[in-house]
């Protein structure tokens, strides 16, 4: 696999697949610019070499055509600030404006194409669409690890039209850090799995049972485990058809000698809202009409002790409904524990994208852990052992 460091972009027009799928508020202000900042080294290397960068990305989920709220023009001020130079904009990704602007682009200049998903052909992995995109540049750089698990036109299919296919710094760092966790983890190795559903995490949990010493389970999926073990969960989140699977996972962990840590107490609410009435109860004792929305203080202490004794930490998924400040205590406490293990105990910590990355960044800890992944789904699929189309296209 060619990497950015090993390639000279002088005189080249680099078509760079980036992941600018950033959250915007109603005034089109970016609320988390992590993904934009992550691309700075790759774009800087291209223009400093004397090449030009043609950036392409998706934003949101347009319904099959241009939509104002999903236009990438809204992020241009943030890009110009990040890259420290003007960013040109083509109001289409394969139309005449894109062709003309790409053709006239000079060394050191940056062009942003309009949202790729304004064309349904992008997500369909349409070969003709990929070929049209490919004609805008003469080297393909894939730096969008977050979409590498999708066989879309710009993330995988267009690779076939280039002799030079290069992995950007984000892509390279994501793969290097994932491999470090999977192949060279220092022990004790602890995985923290949170989030709503067991069904989203079955494969990664099964894979990790062969790798880790400790598995901490938090978030909404714990209530399915609790119910399966005969506990009362009130109206908490439940995957009723996954209860046998939950018990099976616990049995597999025991057979493999992996220590499983689950909540011993929960903060529950009488309504799904930040302002709901709250009470802390022992796990398995949530009253009817109440639902668990966070881990309790005893669980925080238990989980923190495990994290602080670890040398390798993988965290994917929050401990509760962290979007509500009153139920973010558990998630924030785990973030603090991971930071402390990293900074004071020399642990290697990988935050696995998605909600975990948002939680860590919101708490201001993003630069105090070893690595924050930009791709939740892609990272999980890579760790599950699946071939990622966007990575395979670079080989």
TrEMBL record:
Subcellular location, record wording: Cytoplasm
InterPro entries, A to Z: Phosphoglycerate_kinase, Phosphoglycerate_kinase_N, Phosphoglycerate_kinase_sf
GO MF annotations in UniProt: kinase activity
EC number of this enzyme: 2.7.2.3
A Pfam family reported for this protein in Swiss-Prot or TrEMBL: PGK
Leading EC class: transferase
Catalytic activity: (2R)-3-phosphoglycerate + ATP = (2R)-3-phospho-glyceroyl phosphate + ADP
Keywords recorded for this protein, A-Z: ATP-binding, Cytoplasm, Glycolysis, Kinase, Nucleotide-binding, Transferase
Pathway entry: Carbohydrate degradation; glycolysis; pyruvate from D-glyceraldehyde 3-phosphate: step 2/5
Quaternary state and interactors: Monomer.
Name used for this protein in its record: Phosphoglycerate kinase
Organism: Spirosoma liriopis
Primary gene name: pgk
């Amino acid at each position: 696999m060619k990497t950015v460091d090993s390639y000279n972009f002088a005189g080249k027009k680099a078509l760079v697949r980036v992941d600018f799928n950033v959250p915007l508020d109603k005034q089109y202000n970016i609320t988390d610019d992590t993904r934009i900042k992550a691309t700075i080294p790759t774009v800087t290397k291209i223009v400093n070499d004397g090449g030009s960068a043609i950036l392409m990305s998706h934003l949101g989920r347009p319904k099959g055509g241009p939509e104002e709220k999903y236009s990438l023009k809204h992020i241009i001020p943030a890009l110009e600030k990040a890259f420290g130079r003007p960013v040109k904009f083509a109001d289409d990704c394969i139309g005449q404006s894109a062709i003309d602007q790409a053709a006239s682009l000079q060394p050191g200049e940056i062009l942003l194409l309009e949202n790729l998903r304004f064309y349904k052909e992008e997500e369909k992995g349409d070969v003709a669409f990929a070929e049209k995109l490919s004609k805008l540049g003469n080297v393909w750089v894939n730096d969008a690890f977050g979409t590498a698990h999708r066989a879309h036109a710009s993330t995988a299919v267009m690779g076939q039209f280039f002799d030079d296919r290069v992995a950007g710094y984000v892509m390279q760092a994501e793969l290097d850090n994932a491999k470090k966790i999977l192949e060279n983890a220092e022990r004790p190795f602890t995985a923290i799995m949170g989030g709503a559903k067991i069904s989203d995490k079955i494969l990664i949990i099964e894979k990790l049972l062969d790798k880790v010493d400790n598995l901490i389970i938090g978030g909404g999926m714990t209530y399915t485990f609790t119910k399966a073990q005969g506990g009362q969960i009130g109206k908490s989140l439940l995957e009723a058809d996954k209860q046998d699977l939950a018990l099976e996972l616990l049995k597999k962990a025991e057979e493999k000698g992996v220590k499983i840590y689950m909540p011993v107490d929960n903060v529950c609410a009488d309504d799904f809202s930040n302002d709901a009435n709250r009470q802390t109860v022992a796990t398995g004792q949530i009253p009817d009409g109440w639902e668990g929305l966070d881990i309790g203080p005893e669980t925080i202490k238990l989980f923190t002790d495990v994290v602080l004794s670890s040398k390798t930490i993988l965290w994917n998924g929050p401990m509760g409904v962290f979007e509500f400040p009153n139920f973010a205590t558990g998630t924030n406490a785990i973030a603090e524990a991971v930071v402390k293990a990293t900074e004071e105990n020399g642990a290697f910590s990988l935050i696995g994208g998605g909600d975990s990355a948002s939680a860590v960044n919101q708490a201001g800890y993003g630069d105090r852990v070893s690595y924050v992944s930009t791709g939740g789904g892609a990272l999980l699929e890579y760790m599950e052992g699946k071939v990622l189309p966007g990575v395979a296209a670079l080989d």
